[in-house]
Design goal:
single chain, 188 residues, alpha/beta, 2 domains, 4-stranded mixed beta sheet, 6 helices, 47% helix, binds 2-acetamido-2-deoxy-beta-D-glucopyranose, binds zinc ion
Length: 188
């Protein structure tokens, strides 16, 4: 009995400790709504599907907190239970972040992406941008949109996920200009 009790206490203590340290790490949910669409098929077969996406979300989440925002304690980090990615059939933009913790990625974009990088690389780059939107504070919606976009692209740039030769320092006019580095169709 005694040893069982000790074991239980150790487990509880460990669990509290663990959650105290990393309690803010969300659950990553990935839903491919269109597994038979050309883009849904590429998502599974070329990009690596749900396992790859979840693994990268965790990595990018930590990268954003610790390397980009320098939010080293849970008190600084935006607390989210889940971050959800939907692969779905829509046109107009590559991806959209909505409802503060959800990202819709266009299967049409994944199907038709022409390069120059490989699709898995491009998807990972896009996830850096959209995940930044998930975790960035935006002054309750008062932050100028170009600045919000500029920060998201800063993560992409810092993580080395802009195609080589795509941008050069000084190509913009203002620090809060935003989309200066993004000649592709707009990412919201
Ligand atoms: C988080 O995702 C799970 C599915 O994995 C779902 O059951 C749950 O309702 C979600 N929670 C929130 C707060 O969205
Ligand atoms: C994103 O996809 C979800 C799931 O299909 C849908 O309910 C939601 O309306 C979409 N959001 C936007 C902004 O398109
Ligand atoms: Zn954006």
């Amino acid at each position: 009995m005694a040893s069982h009790f000790f074991f239980l206490c150790t487990l509880l203590t460990f669990s509290l400790y663990f959650h105290g340290i990393s309690g803010a790490i969300p659950k990553y949910v990935v839903i491919n709504e269109v597994p038979t669409h050309g883009g849904g098929i590429k998502f599974d077969k070329v990009i690596g599907g749900i396992p790859y996406t979840k693994k990268k979300m965790r990595h990018i989440n930590k990268y954003i907190w610790y390397k980009v925002f320098k939010q080293n304690t849970p008190a600084d980090q935006k607390p989210l239970d889940n971050v959800t990615v939907f692969i779905k059939d829509f046109v107009g933009v590559e991806a959209v972040t909505w409802g503060s913790d959800k990202i819709n990625v266009s299967a049409v974009f994944l199907r038709d992406y022409p390069g120059p990088m490989d699709l898995k690389w491009e998807f990972t780059s896009l996830m850096h941008h959209e995940m930044t939107h998930v975790f960035q504070w935006n002054g309750e919606g008062k932050t100028p949109a170009p600045l919000v976009e500029g920060i998201a692209d800063y993560t992409v740039l810092k993580a080395n996920y802009f195609p080589p030769g795509f941008t050069k320092p000084g190509s913009g006019d203002r620090w809060d200009e935003g989309y200066v580095h993004t000649p592709f169709s707009p990412v919201l």
